[in-house]
Amino acid sequence: MAALYEGYTLCGLVPGQTLTNSGIQGIEAERDSDHVVVTDSTRSVTLYKVSDQKPLSSWTVKQGQTLTCPAVYNSQTEEYVVVSDNKVIRIWKDEDILLDKAFKATVSSDVWRVHCLPGGEPVVLFQRGAVRLLDSLLSAPQQPIEEVLAQEEAIRWSTNIVADSQQFVIFTTEQKGDSFLYLHRLNPNTLQRYRLEREEPGLSPLSFSASYRDKHICLLYLYPNGHVYQSVVSVRGLGGDEGAQALPLPRSLLLGLPVGEGLLEAASAQLLDEAHVAVVGVPHPSAGAGKDFLCIWNTNFQTLQAGKEMAGKIYGQLWTFSNKLFIPHGKTLSVIPYECPKSSLASALGKLKQAKTEGELKQMSCVPSWNNILHGDKAQPSRPAETRKTVSNFIKTKYLNFSVQTAPVEEVQREVEGLLSRADIQDLQPLVGQLASMLVSRSLADPAFYTPSTLAQLVHTQSLCHSVCPDLVLLALERRDFFLCQLCLQFFPDIPEAVTCACLKAFIRVVIKTGEEDKEKSSTPPEPICPVGLHKAVLLNEVLLTAYSDTFLLPHLKDLSSQHVVLFLQYLQFLYLKYSQDASPQMHGLRSPSLTQIMDWVCMVLDAHFTVLVMTPEAKGLLVNLHSFVKSQVRLVSELGKIEGSLQELNKMKVKKDVGQYSIEIIELF
């Protein structure tokens, strides 16, 4: 049975004024399944690593210029391609910083899209329907471009696929209420045009999706009345250039989705496999009005198999890569992992096959404890994967919700320990996020309930991240559970900068409040003294080691008080001195930041508070010391630069093999 798992935020959005303008033009897969290229609606292209939810690089065109189609990644040349102002093709590599200095060429006709399949050559589709391979186009950018479309005919959607080792550009158009499908085959170039059957008067498709299977190109399209149709075209039947003649395109109704009152305005349907469709912007059959959902429907059995409510406005945009759905909603671009196993009628109806007999299942349904369920099955030497999944789902639906929300602290801790002690914990990983969310929700609602050891165990599984349970760190700060904060900072790859600063403020506040009673004393005066004590240094080090973006972190650093800033800079100065005296400044086995990380934090704190620090008498000596640090670093780099050439010559010298047990060699450096 299909499933939607806990999602996470990839980035924020700046929506436009129109109903379907989320602020994103397009999302394209990059070099592997963990990287995507996001193009916004105005001037920027950003590369994201999905698992870290962090931007790796970003490129922007000048003010007054506009990106007019989504960027794509050419894996053959390891280059990005985008179009600005309809006619300017720009090409650049990862190491390029400024788009304006990268390669660009102006073509003679407006471009609709650039498409590029993994391992394939980019293809340019022009607004009037012509198609060119990118290399061929760039060999003569001003070459004349023919007009394929009729007057008043405009492209609405396009993609490209590989079928039988041949590349196809597929696009749909609209003209005076009629919709058409074009199939353009490359090498040899052929074009076929089809006319879609008309729906109710005035209704045009809201979205399209295409796939290739069993020697056929399958087109899926959704109408505002909730009808989802599929049309199938055989690749073998595609002949010569017959673009002028529009052939009728038969269709079959796959789904009749509920639309409530009125028609759909911003919705999308995407093929996931031969039996499943993801739909966004369509009401959930059993939910109230005014709620937007992401759903997975089984087209074979006409059943809704998974649904997730999406907060905020829905824009009718949906992308899918590597079993992940990318959906803009509100002011957020979310990533929702999904699974679509092969389904039978029983699984589609929610009645999974089970290896146990009906009597055994009835006996199991009467067992009131997780431990009996979990450990009772351990006696069996093996168990089919489907049955394991059934048991996991059974635990989740029958016991998990009830026990976590009602049981006392001791029982919850005991049951979770039993759950996490399973040998097949991988099968229960999807439950970890739900467990943590339930525990956090109950702890926030009930001041008397808190399970620190259980939450720490869940974090240690490394199946959690901040996006899955966004209130966990804030709960830990509220309960002053700094050990749990430390674990979250260490194991969560997606801590937002606002939360990082909240942790920093809380840790520094504890240092000031306790009077630094655990400050480390040194027997030798030259040895630098930790201004916060080793116990607090552990916490501050985790903040320094947390991933961040300068742009998003700087505004939150400005919220620190001058007292907090001075103490934090004193600690950064202490770490710097440790590096000056010791190449490996690990304080009693603590996790310590690198010298680069220390200097980056010093720079950011000074950027955020320099004016205040200059006016603060207590900070004068600190600023003087930091200034001397910078001068010493500049001097060191300058001296190293002077001997750089000599050191390079040493590397080139041939080492004598037979030097005996003892030798003296004089090397002259010029």
Automatic annotation (TrEMBL):
Its main location: nucleus. It comes from the Eukaryota. One of its GO terms (cellular component) is nucleolus. It is found in: Nucleus, Nucleolus. GO terms for biological process: maturation of SSU-rRNA. Residues 1-338 form the Nucleolar protein 11 N-terminal domain. Keywords: Activator, Nucleus, rRNA processing, Transcription, Transcription regulation. SUPFAM superfamilies: WD40 repeat-like. One of its GO terms (molecular function) is RNA binding. Signal peptide: none annotated. The keyword GTP-binding does not apply. Residues 412-670 form the Nucleolar protein 11 C-terminal domain. The keyword Isomerase does not apply. This is Nucleolar protein 11. The gene is NOL11.
